[in-house]
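Hi all, posting the design record for the shared folder.

TITLE: backbone redesign
STEP: 1 of 1
STRUCTURE INPUT:
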């Protein structure tokens, strides 16, 4: 689609079942790679537009498009992860969050229990996931089917919340050691 001036509405109406995701990355690696910024590596095949993450993926698709189009088993749009904007993410109540607000990528990749940033929220299959960093959120978006299987350990580590000694001294049932 290089140097073609196509109407954006026409392109949007003629998207393939992969929408803006790369079919080669999905078929070969089962990764969701979004490519809507890359209009240079777009192919029109059977009256549908296909987007690719790079020229190499586009060339692989062009060599044998039927391999990627037929029986693709690409998830439906409601089964794809959706990133919540930060101003809306802060409105999500803690009890609604999956894994009690802990990062599923940290649990799966690092075997660590880490609280997520409350502004980094993704909705996937009606569950709300929170992430430790932008990098981990992007890893989840690329492979949500792997990371949605994370579960909290039976024995949780102590909370990382800082304890204020001033508030501790005010509590009636605490032992005051600051006198």
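Okay, here is what came back for every position:
SEQUENCE:
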């Amino acid at each position: 689609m290089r140097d073609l001036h196509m109407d954006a509405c026409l392109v949007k109406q003629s998207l393939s079942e992969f929408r803006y995701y790369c079919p080669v990355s999905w078929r070969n690696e089962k990764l969701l790679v979004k490519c809507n910024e890359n209009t240079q590596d777009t192919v029109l095949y059977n009256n549908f537009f296909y987007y690719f993450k790079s020229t190499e993926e586009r060339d692989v698709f062009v060599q044998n498009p039927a391999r990627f189009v037929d029986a693709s088993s690409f998830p439906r749009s409601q089964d794809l992860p959706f990133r919540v904007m930060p101003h809306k993410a802060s409105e999500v109540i803690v009890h609604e969050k999956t894994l009690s607000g802990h990062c599923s990528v940290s649990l799966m990749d690092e075997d660590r229990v880490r609280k997520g940033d409350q502004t980094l929220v993704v909705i996937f299959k009606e569950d709300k996931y929170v992430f430790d960093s932008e990098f981990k959120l992007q890893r989840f978006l690329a492979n949500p089917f792997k990371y949605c299987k994370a579960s909290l350990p039976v024995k949780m580590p102590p909370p990382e919340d800082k304890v204020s000694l001033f508030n501790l001294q005010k509590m009636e049932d605490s032992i005051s050691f600051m006198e």
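COMMENT: The chain has two domains: 8-72, 79-147.
Let me know if anyone wants the other runs.
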